[in-house]
Amino acid sequence: xxxxxxxxxxxxxxxxxxxxxxxxxxxxxxxxxxxxxxxxxxxxxxxxxxxxxxxxxxxxxxxxxxxxxxxxxxxxxxxxxxxxxxxxxxxxxxxxxxxxxxxxxxxxxxxxxxxxxxxxxxxxxxxxxxxxxxxxxxxxxxx
Amino acid sequence: xxxxxxxxxxxxxxxxxxxxxxxxxxxxxxxxxxxxxxxxxxxxxxxxxxxxxxxxxxxxxxxxxxxxxxxxxxxxxxxxxxxxxxxxxxxxxxxxxxxxxxxxxxxxxxxxxxxxxxxxxxxxxxxxxxxxxxxxxxxxxxxxxxxxxxxxxxxxxxxxxxxxxxxxxxxxxxxxxxxxxxxxxxxxxxxxxxxxxxxxxxxxxxxxxxxxxxxxxxxxxxxxxxxxxxxxxxxxxxxxxxxxxxxxxxxxxxxxxxxxxxxxxxxxxx
Lengths: 143, 270
What we know:
Chain A is an alpha+beta fold. Helix content of chain A is 24%, strand content 20%. Chain A is built from 3 helices and 5 strands. In chain A, strands 1, 2, 3, 4 and 5 form a 5-stranded antiparallel beta sheet that branches. Helix content of chain B is 77%, strand content 0%. Chain B is globular. At the A-B interface, helix 1 and helix 2 of A face helix 1, helix 6, helix 7, helix 8 and helix 10 of B.
């Protein structure tokens, strides 16, 4: 019954903690301006005092980090090309495809980068860059 | 102090209920992400290699798809709110505890990507408590309390003793590296730690030895155990604020009455 995740993994930042942030960036093929610059998705806001009690953003942070970790595992496997078929990749692609910006575009591409956000001297690394995705044209409801 | 198993079980139920209330409210705030166009879309998640089989076998589509999952979350929130009320009014809590335990298990599947260790601890503890309240004997409650104490000790021990082997925690390197990330860090605490390395060293050492000490807290006499647990509360408040792990505080503090109960049980035998 592994799907219930009841066999605990109690490593919590041990032995070596997470030392880099992952970020999701995307660009779209806009019908009027062509390919746009890369935009970053903000999954969470910087924390404040209230975050000690209430911090819903951590769910999005955790979900994205989980997807990226699973993607990295596939990229390091013997079949890295299978990454586009994974649920994690499809979750990310689905999320961007349904964003306001991408919905009306001709296509979109995304990449995952890692960096230490509060240390600008740390090098930025690219984890993955997707192919261009061309969503099927949605039929107009206009009569 | 009254070391009655019911009192300790109630204390755990109330604290865990707070964790469930916060966690559920957080998920309800993100409810749109559960839709087919959201970041946690079930239509994509259920195609995973394991889930594809279990989703049909366990008929998970009904409770996990949108918007039904939102109704399930509302039900969990309602039950979690009801638990402390029933306890204070001296009514049995069997039904809400059972419902929360079942929904927690469903959410372990549905939110596998966004759930963290606090949700996992809460799910495991609620199952133990549900069994205890259904059987409803002093022995069943004592077993549940020992089980929860063992879970907490295992969690702190795994985390603490694994960290103990890495020098980076004592030198302050790892705490600083974590603080540099936006995910789990904090720019103000980072600035302080960079200015005075001793802060990072103290933070790292405190986390390592705090975790280790909390894992063996049950082995100390109750009075010393209480002091260690108070330290644990402050440790969790600090971590919750800096790292944005707010629900960890509640699900781990919820296990403290069980640790104290175990400590008392051991020393009453000696």
